[in-house]
Write a structure and sequence with these properties.
The protein has about 270 residues and is α+β, with helices and mostly antiparallel strands. It has 9 helices and 15 strands.
């Protein structure tokens, strides 16, 4: 089984790079076409084509694996492995010409998240992890080095990041954002997959998402846990299907939970 997982990690890194390179063909181009989905979130041909690229390569290399992606739905499999894809996490950054969007690739077996890749094409930066094998960070052509969370034990000395402030308001939790902002030394809304990469590499202490989909979360959990941190829902449960997320260095988790647990997700 270990060999099976490691082979998929190697492949996940490769397709994340290929998909990221494809997005760069559209990045900062005025001709990129932007559509609005049913939830009013934007999508471009770069999202759709980069996901298709990954799906086609997975289907060829691992034909019995299931696939689920943000833009093209779910394909069933029989192997027990499922690839979970977000071709552009941070499409709003992408269409604004900001290079802080990411390609996310996760692999789960049953309900266990085994592999995570967070690639930032615009910065040529990547963190990746396999459960039990550590997390690794690479930039450009440099050799990968271990990815480790910070050792700061208080938000008062740390960095809190999120994606978009009004998502807190959409679940009646704007006060949660305000309390987190007051508690932190620095607050920024770089967010999306890049925010979790910052936590995994020790440059931020907490990343909080009021709303997430499984394709946003699947790659994040193994990366943060293997980097020495945590990825949980707002009540502190480790999961990728809780429709919300908290990524921390572990040392500030309880401080964050003291705030977020006061704002249960509306039923």
């Amino acid at each position: 089984m270990a060999v099976e997982v490691s082979a998929r990690l190697k492949f996940a890194i490769e397709i994340a790079r290929a998909a990221g390179d494809l997005t760069l063909e559209y990045f900062q181009r005025s001709s990129v076409q932007i559509e609005r989905k049913g939830d009013d979130s934007p999508v471009t041909q770069a999202d759709r084509q980069s996901e298709l690229l990954m799906r086609e390569r997975i289907a060829k290399a691992f034909p019995n694996d299931a696939i689920i992606g943000e833009e093209h739905g779910e394909a069933e499999g029989t192997s027990g492995y499922k690839w979970i894809l977000d071709p552009i996490d941070g499409t709003k950054s992408f269409i604004a010409g900001v290079p802080l969007y990411s390609v996310l690739v996760g692999v789960v077996r049953k309900t266990e998240s085994l592999i995570g890749v967070i690639r930032i094409p615009g910065l040529d930066e990547c963190v990746y992890a396999e459960k039990g094998q550590g997390a690794w960070w690479t930039k450009g052509e440099a050799a990968a080095i271990p990815a480790r969370v910070s050792n700061r034990n208080s938000l008062a000395d740390g960095v809190f990041v999120t994606s978009q402030v009004d998502t807190f308001d959409s679940r009646s939790a704007i006060e949660a954002y305000q309390r987190l902002e007051r508690a932190a030394y620095v607050t920024r809304t770089w967010g999306d997959g890049y925010g979790y990469l910052l936590v995994a590499t020790g440059r931020a202490e907490a990343m909080v998402d009021p709303m997430m989909n499984i394709w946003d979360a699947a790659a994040i959990q193994p990366v943060l846990e293997e980097a020495g941190g945590t990825f949980t829902d707002w009540k502190g449960k480790p999961c990728i299907d809780g429709s919300e997320g908290i990524g921390t260095n572990g040392l500030v988790l309880n401080e964050v939970l003291e705030i977020t647990q006061d704002y249960p997700r509306p039923s």
